[in-house]
Structures are given as C-alpha cells and as structure tokens.
TrEMBL record:
CDD domains according to UniProt: ABC_Carb_Monos_I (cd03216)
Keyword Nucleotide-binding tagged: yes
InterPro entries with a match to the protein in the record: AAA+_ATPase, ABC_carbohydrate_import_ATPase, ABC_transporter-like_ATP-bd, ABC_transporter-like_CS, P-loop_NTPase
Nucleotide-binding found in the keyword field: yes
Domain ABC transporter as annotated: residue spans: 24-263
E.C. numbers: 3.6.3.17
Gene Ontology MF, one: ATP hydrolysis activity
The protein's name: Ribose import ATP-binding protein RbsA
Ranges where the record places region Disordered: 1-21
Organism the protein comes from: Roseibium album
Length: 274
C-alpha cells in the first residue's frame, strides 16, 4: 500500500458536512464466509454527492464491502443506515428501492437484447394500444439514444449488446443504472476494460452525476480513476478500514509514485478494449 497509515487523515468532511446525516453509513459491519472474516467491523460514511474511492490489496475486502452496500451480501453483524435510518438490505432489489445502484463487474446485461432494451430492462416504456398496454419501442429507442448521447457517446442503440465492445457495454450498464435515478452509484473496477478515451468519458459522466447530487463509491486499482473522481480515499486492509485521506493531502511525490506504480503495471490506454 503506497500510503502509510500514519500519513492518512481521520476526518471525513464529505460525510459530516452540514446537519444532514450521511447518505449511507456503515457501523461495525462484519461479513464472515464460513470461518473466514472478509470484513471486520467496518465503519464507513458516504456523504450526499460525495465520491468515495476504495483502494486496497487483492483480497482486502473491497468487493465484499460493495456487495454489502448493494444488498448482494447480508452482513454477519453491524448496522447500515440510509439517511440516518436503519436499513436491512435483503437483496439488490432492496438496494435499488432505496436508491442504491450497483454496476457489477460482469455488467449483468442481456447479450441478445439491444442497447435500448437493456437500458430499460425492468422499466420498459409502454403505450396504449386499444385496451392494451404495449411496449413503446420507439420511445425507448429515442430515450436510449439521448442517454447515450448525454454520455458523450455515439453508437446505435438498436445494436445487440452482444455485438458491443467492452467499453460500450460498460456505458450501457451505467445508462441502465441511471434509469433508476439512484442516490448512490457503486462501481467495482469500472474502467478495467476501457480504452483511455472511454475512461475519460466515464470520468466526465461521473463528474456530472456528482453535480446532480449522486453519491459515488468507486473501487479501482487505477489511481488515476481515484484521483480524478474521488473526494475522499478509503484504504481497506485485511477486512478493516486502515485509514483515509483526501486526494489533495497526498504529497506530490507520493501521487507521482502512485501514478508510476499504476502506469508501469497497468497503463491507462493500453487495454485491449477499443
Ligand atoms: N462468496 C465468498 N465465499 C467465500 N469467501 C469469499 C467470498 N467472497 C469473497 N471471499 C473472500 O473474502 C476475501 C475478500 O474478497 P474480496 O473479493 O472482497 O476482495 P477484494 O479486495 O475485492 O479483492 P480483489 O482486489 O482481488 O478483487 C477474499 O479472501 C475472498 O476469497
């Protein structure tokens, strides 16, 4: 881990700003898989419109943390609060009902449906046809085309998702999540398959979401993602929060070291995706 704990600040300005409770708060969250403790007493706050970056070694518990927040895993113990109210998430659908959307690493898209159908999956637009309510394909296609254009992209929303590049699929997954008007968007390694150009588009889009008041939780091994997107960086180590810091608190030399570490192992723009 590039940043020693002693250099991390303990404050949490995004979560503590104003009188309002944080959007999401975890208190003492523990998650055990059999005898293995993947999360061990995690306390975490995510403020309204705050972008929190999660970093940590392989196996530290980052994905487990995101899965607890998105209702995939039920914690073994601990409390989750949403806008100050205790909340138990039984499923990702529960999380969605509470305004928490997750972009999964496998993106959870239907390969044989087109982009518009994927974006509106589960929330299909309908119109009256005599006494019936039928799918309004035209309205969905137009709305999906607008969503994709809003993201600064240009591709045919009538193409099957199975024909798209990894980066285009990623953007479809984000567009789909946004249909649910989330208060928080959780992303686990969203740029792993993206080209440099699409990474920048994703950063811009996340910036716009933050301006609209959406909170972001981002797990990424790419420090450039974290430094470009996040207001606060939380370090997870062996299932615990090892510390946190603000991006501007990183000494320039350390920032450079982080970037260099990332660039040598995983250069932005050298990915296979076009
Ligand atoms: N469903 C599961 N059953 C058993 N063990 C699990 C399960 N999910 C995660 N673990 C274990 O919990 C630990 C934390 O896993 P997690 O996927 O959260 O780590 P991570 O920080 O996201 O790692 P990476 O950066 O490699 O993706 C690992 O040791 C992993 O093997």
């Amino acid at each position: 881990m590039p940043t020693p704990q002693s250099e991390m600040s303990g404050h949490n300005p995004g979560a503590d700003s104003g009188a309002r409770p944080p959007l999401i708060e975890l208190r003492g969250i523990t998650k055990k898989f059999g005898g293995y403790t993947a999360l061990d007493g995690v306390d975490l706050k995510i403020g309204e419109a705050e972008a929190v970056g999660i970093i940590g070694d392989n196996g530290a518990g980052k994905s487990t943390l995101v899965k607890v927040l998105s209702g995939v895993h039920r914690p073994s113990s601990g409390t989750m609060l949403f806008r100050g109210q205790k909340l138990t998430l039984g499923s990702p659908l529960d999380a969605r009902r509470n305004g928490v959307e997750m972009i999964y690493q496998d993106l959870a898209l239907c390969e044989d449906l087109d982009v518009a159908q994927n974006i509106f999956l589960g929330r299909e637009l309908k119109k009256n046809f005599g006494p019936f309510r039928v799918l309004d394909r035209q309205a969905m296609t137009e709305a999906a085309a607008n969503d994709i254009a809003d993201m600064g992209l240009d591709f045919d929303v009538e193409r099957e998702v199975g024909q798209l590049s990894g980066g285009e699929r990623q953007m479809v997954a984000v567009a789909r999540a946004l249909q649910f008007d989330p208060a928080a968007l959780l992303m686990d390694e969203p740029t792993a398959a993206l080209s440099a150009e699409k990474i920048r588009k994703l950063w811009e889009m996340i910036g716009r979401l933050k301006q609209r008041g959406v909170s972001i939780l981002l797990v990424s091994h790419r420090f450039t993602d974290i430094l470009n997107i996040c207001d606060r960086i939380v370090v997870v180590r062996a299932g615990r929060i090892a510390g946190e810091m603000m991006p501007h608190e990183l000494p320039p030399a350390q920032t450079m070291a982080m970037m260099t570490e990332m660039m040598t192992g995983d250069t932005v723009g050298n990915g296979a995706e076009a």
